[in-house]
Amino acid sequence: MKYFKTKNRIRPQIYWSGVFVIFWMINTNLLLAQSQQEISVSLSFPEKPGRLIIDQSFGSVKVRGYEGKILIIKAIPRPEKKGKIGGSASRKYFQRDLIIGLEEYENTVSFNGPSEDIIVDFEILVPKRFSLKLDLLNDGDIYVEGVIGELDVSNNNGKIDLVDVGGTIIADALNKNITVQFNEVIFEAPMVFTSMNGDIDLSFPNNLKARFKAFTEYGDLYSDIKLMPASKPGIKEPSGDGDRIKKYRDKWLYGVINGGGPEIKIDSFNGNIYLKTSN
Amino acid sequence: MDRIKKILERYYEGNSSHLEELELMKFFSSSNIDPDLLEYRAEFEMLNTIRKMHPPNSIIMPLITNTNDRNVNRELYQWKIFGRTAASIALLLIGYLIASFDPPWQNAKLARTVELAKVETERLRTQLILELIEEPITSKRLIAHSEANKLTSPNKLVTEALFTTLQSDSDVNVRIAAVESLSKLVEDPKVREGIIKSLEYQESPLVILKLVKLMILFQENESLNSIEKLLQRPQINETIKKEIEKSIQNLI
């Protein structure tokens, strides 16, 4: 990946790899200055589903699905300094250009947020059928709307809101809530939702076919789906000295809806769990 | 003669009685028949012959009219039905016993076949797990862990792959799935040792919490020492710190 830098304006550039014909590889390199900027990214195979991978340390990510076939990425630097950096230091950061390297390779678009201590919010349009892998650390939420695919989202200190989404979803949030409103529940692989301190609130259409497995250590569980403890104990875990292993009562609650399907696992430590079906 | 003609008339209208028909048969079997009626003779002679061929009442009537005999026959019939049913059930039982009796040589052969099938299933499952665990798509890696939980016996290759996942997988949920899969193998001291060592490489509080909750159950000095070291980390997550203190308090 290469970075191209200009002083005063954005110059998105397409860098064609010298071996493009052989490897079908496209490197798209762009430069984003500190003001709000937008760039379009074409896919190598527009008719096929693609994937967007973002690893972002400071800032939020909003992704919306639309009927188009290209990605439109808008980067909006926040007019605030990050963290505990002193005034002069932060001004120094702002005087520097914001550089983000972005790569498109065989329909996978990936980029990392700025490595500097600058907060950037991204607003992205993707084709409706698209997969996402979003990994955020600080100072921002994840919001996804109208996207169907493999959605793998992780947020350390922000919340996760997924609205009108479908496909297979895997989400974890450390300190804030995870809220998901499904519009389509055709999925073949297991789904997992994990949180330590936030609530997990999932709304499904009533034609959902799935098996549920849910547990919250210190929170409460509210569910439209009937959940029951396991009928048989027998999962082994270690216990005391001597006979180190003993059978214990399975702490998870299990449920099946509309005859069952792939497993949906919901695991929270301090937060509540809400499972809703539309009636 | 007129009477015969009247009876004939009723006969052909279908209104004659049984006795009247017998009278007609008797009449036409005699030799004194009016020439006008000769044309009917052959028909009634034939009827008379058929009547004589019928079994005598001495045979039929007891079955029809004698109530006592009928009861006797009914009981006999019921016993016969009962006997046949009992025989059928006995035959079924005998058949079942024969079918369920496996000669020892067949048992051994069957057991060997089942064992081979199990080994082959485990081999294929292991291969599948090792392939899926390398997949870039997170949900496929999660499927690998679901499959690992289905293994009937510990498998060195899979256990190593689970530890690799625990240490290096980019996704928190996959690393948690690895902890859950490994929690089923803690009978093996090496697995317990691996879990304890893996704690120091973890940074995700969600994974650390799962590991700590599992390690507290070991109640081993090494695991407790490792947990105490974790408490000394300067940036330890407050929720984990509280949970560890609470768990250790419960142990004491």
User: Given the C-alpha coordinates, what overall shape of chain A results?
Assistant: globular
Largest sheet of chain A: 20 strands, mixed
Q: pLDDT under 50 segments of chain A (min length 5)? A: 1-33, 83-95, 234-248
Q: Which H/E pattern describes the elements of chain A? A: EHEEEEEHEEEEEEEEEEEEEEEEEE
* Count of DSSP-assigned helices of chain A: 2
**Residue-averaged pLDDT of chain B:** 83
| Assembly state (oligomeric) | heterodimer
> What is the tally of beta strands of chain A?
24
Tally of extended strands of chain B? 0
| Global structural class of chain B | mainly alpha
Proportion of helical residues of chain B = over 70%
Using only CA atoms, what is the Rg of chain B?
48 Å
What is the C-level CATH assignment of the largest domain in chain B?
A: Mainly Alpha
Specify the overall morphology of chain B: rod-shaped
Q: In CATH terms, what is the fold-level topology of the largest domain in chain B?
A: Leucine-rich Repeat Variant
Biggest chain pair contact, residues each?
A: A-B, 31 and 28 residues
| Share of helical residues of chain A | under 10%
Low confidence ranges of chain B: none
- Radius of gyration of chain A (CA) equals 22 Å
Order of helices and strands of chain B: HHHHHHHHHHHHH
Characterization of the model:
The complex is a heterodimer of chains A (279) and B (252). With 279 residues, chain A is mainly beta. Chain A contains 2 helices and 24 strands. In chain A, the strands form 3 sheets. Chain A has a 20-stranded mixed beta sheet that branches. In chain A, strands 1-2 form a two-stranded antiparallel sheet. The longest helix of chain A is centred in the N-terminal third of the chain and has 9 residues, at 87-95. The termini of chain A are far apart. The model of chain A is unreliable at 1-33, 83-95 and 234-248 (pLDDT under 50). Chain B folds into 3 domains: 2-54, no CATH class; 63-100; 116-251, Leucine-rich Repeat Variant. Chain B has helices at 2-13, 18-29, 38-53, 57-64, 67-100, 104-132, 138-150, 156-168, 172-183, 189-198, 205-218, 221-231, 238-251. Chain B starts with a helix and ends with a helix. The A-B interface holds A 131, 133, 135, 150, 152, 154, 168, 170-172, 174, 189-192, 194, 196-197, 235-241, 244-245, 263, 267, 269-270 and B 137-140, 142-143, 146, 170-173, 176-177, 183-184, 186-187, 192, 205-206, 209, 214, 217-219, 237, 239, 243.
